[in-house]
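ok trying again, last paste got cut off:
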Amino acid sequence: MPFEQFIIFFLLLITGFFCKKYNVFSDSAVSGINTFIIYIGYPCLILVRTTALDMDHRIFINFLFAFFINLGLLLLFGTYGRFYCRGKRFHDDDKPVAELALMSSNNGFIGFPVAVSFFGDLGLFYMVACNIALNTTFFTYGVSVMRRGRASNESFKKKAAGFFLMLASPKVSVAIAGIILCYNHITLPEIANDFCSIVGSIATPMAMISIGTMLAGNFGPRSFKKHAVMEPVLNRLFIVPLASAAIVWFLPLDPLVKTIIIVSNALPVATMVAILSEQYNQNKGLAGETIVISTLFSMVTVPLVIWLLTNL
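nice, full thing came through this time. structure:
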């Protein structure tokens, strides 16, 4: 198992950290990089890797298993987070963010490069299924969590439009297109395949550098003393992966599907938590702290999880 890849990931993170710390990248530059990764880089990566698979009925069924099982796990951990945060001495304004941070994992921005680097094209394919489940949860259950205690004049039509807009997002639509092409053994034209390969290959290092810029954000020693930060982070990186493993390990699933589901739930807090926090006037600062600290800790916990899974 090429754990040298994690050293490269770490070096890319450090590069992003210093680029942001010393103003090599401005905030607008980082925003532009993230937009490129989400709307161009990752869709190209997903398309070229998916169409390269030797798709058959078994792989497609495994994709559906990964989606529905991860969807169920997310709802289970969402319920656990609701009761956990209710029973803790968190400020009422912190509870929605803490609850969503505990439940959600960054299985897109970090999950995609981890999956393709350690588990190949098929691992990425199953991670995409987990990511679609996460996005589905975000725009349904996650929105309801963030709207808790907040007045909202959003109509049902607007909410439904937001959900279908998520389904039409580049990652989801490209994944569906890739499945259709691959299942019907339709290959991309050579020039399109080469273009997607080149663009997709730079998406992973750019994502790692972008995450490194996030680590240069406004957080300090006081962040590590906040219960509303550390308790969701520790749950996310330790309790959630252990519970995921206990639930899926003995299911009659393909071993790679099990591994990807567990790894997906071992990743740090998703950046979407901060986006939804800002959109629904929740504690965006708290969301940012959970994302940064969980990402920092995950540089140790995620390699450990992968090592355990590949050696058991």
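cool. The domain at 4-311 is CATH 1.20.1530.20 (Na+/H+ antiporter like fold). The first helix runs from residue 4 to 21.
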